[in-house]
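**Polypeptide and fold**
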Amino acid sequence: MLRVYTQGEQGHRWLREFQGCLPLFACILGFTETGLIPHISTAGATPAARRLTALADAEFLVKGPQAHPQFALPLLTQGVSPVFIVWPLLTAQRIPLRVFNAGLMTPPTVPTIDLQGQPAQCLSTGAALALSTVQRLLAAGMSWGERLAAQVRDRYLILAECVVGGTTTAQAILTGLNFAAAGRVNSSHPVCNHDQKTELVKQGLAQAALHHRGAWIEDPLALVAAVGDPMQIVIAGMAITASRQCGVLLAGGTQMLAVYALARQIAQCFHLPWHPEKIIVGTTRWVVEDPSGDTVGLAEQIGDVPLVASQLDFSTSRFPQLQAFEQGFVKEGVGAGGCAIAAHLYQGWQPADILAAVEQTLEEYGRLQGNWP
């Protein structure tokens, strides 16, 4: 069910330590106008749909399938939102959920913890966020990391995200931290749109350099302000402080590798105590085995964080919307891979168990909607 792709000894030690533990799942919502660029993402078939993706995913996370949701899940090019994986696992295993608003254009319709952030401008501007906003979000993330860790004590947190366009801002952060991320990141496309992402990153960093002197690695908060998104700095802060008290599973692929690299740089620059050995990045097989990306190579380049993936398999599903995951669409999001890892660690669920739960949820959703998109 699980495979450790990098830092094997450390990764297996983490999995053994937290086997049988009930985690707490925290999803941090954010928005970047990068996600509105045509063809940048398939997390919503159109830019207009992508404005609502995080709101719809949050509503589904909290309420599950409904006949008349306020924000319906947007139609995708292929497949369905990964929230169809997350919700049944959280529900069946009674994993506690917290939802945070790090910076959205519209307030969610479900209870969230508002971190007083702002949505980001497109990273190509080189001025995605105000530095004061980044500083405020880091402080909020560090505070909430302590509070959430105190709730789980010697267990672990799952820190997940929902940011459309987030793999592009992830590439920008990694590039600014001197990692060779171009051509290695993933996306919701079956074949990653590397050229488009790399051009945006070049534009953003070039624009930002006009107003910033010195190396980005010496000023990671300014880097986030230049080309990042509000989720990244929040989870980086949470991971730093939570690792002092409990385990941390950064649930995602490229985006969470960027968050880890950012957290490490912040801890180093500001001399913040933390315990990186308590942290892993957890995702899906669809991400790490994506032939148009190189997640494993990226993780190896970053260095000291284990990359773990659930071996989900939807190839036998009776729903073509789920078979689309096997064709390279969607791959990950809303902490789907991390949730699948947790389902195995806590109650021993196998890929077939997860598929059955996801299909049941999909079936219920279709019944309530009265048709299938």
